[in-house]
Write a structure and sequence with these properties.
There is one protein chain. A hairpin with a 6-residue loop joins strand 5 and strand 6. The chain has about 120 residues and is an all-beta fold. The chain has no helices and eleven strands. The strands form two sheets. Strands 2, 4, 5, 6, 9, 10 and 11 form a seven-stranded mixed beta sheet that branches.
Length: about 120
């Protein structure tokens, strides 16, 4: 089992930056694919980015490619999502997720989730 806690959300102006963090507790963190999803009210939770357990491969939604970067520090059990050039449409609750057996964008394949952190992009 792995427990996840997100932090780093907040209010930022369009064009600004934020860095989200996800702290994981539990064993064998490096064996888990880690991912970020986001959700706005009334919409399904959507994939943002994923990274393999070793960190050697990453995968992004087209909407964030070139602006967001997922990374991890297995020694610290941490996953990060620096977000640049933020747009109002990036406003959402951002969730950290983990899967021990899957690498990709399918929400239902991730079985461990954090509580989420709110990101609001507005002037």
């Amino acid at each position: 089992q792995v427990q996840l806690v997100e932090s780093g959300g907040g209010l930022v102006q369009p064009g600004g930056s934020l860095r989200l963090s996800c702290a994981a507790s539990g064993r064998s963190f490096s064996t888990y694919t880690m991912a970020w999803f986001r959700q706005t009210l009334g919409k399904e939770r959507e994939f943002v980015a994923a990274i393999t357990g070793s960190g050697d491969s990453t995968y992004y939604a087209d909407s964030v490619k070139g602006r967001f970067t997922i990374s991890r520090d297995n020694a610290k059990n941490m996953v990060y999502l620096p977000m640049n050039s933020l747009k109002p449409e990036d406003t959402a609750v951002y969730y950290c997720a983990a899967s021990q057996y899957y690498y990709g964008s399918a929400r239902r394949q991730y079985d461990h989730w954090g509580q989420g952190t709110q990101v609001t992009v507005s002037s």
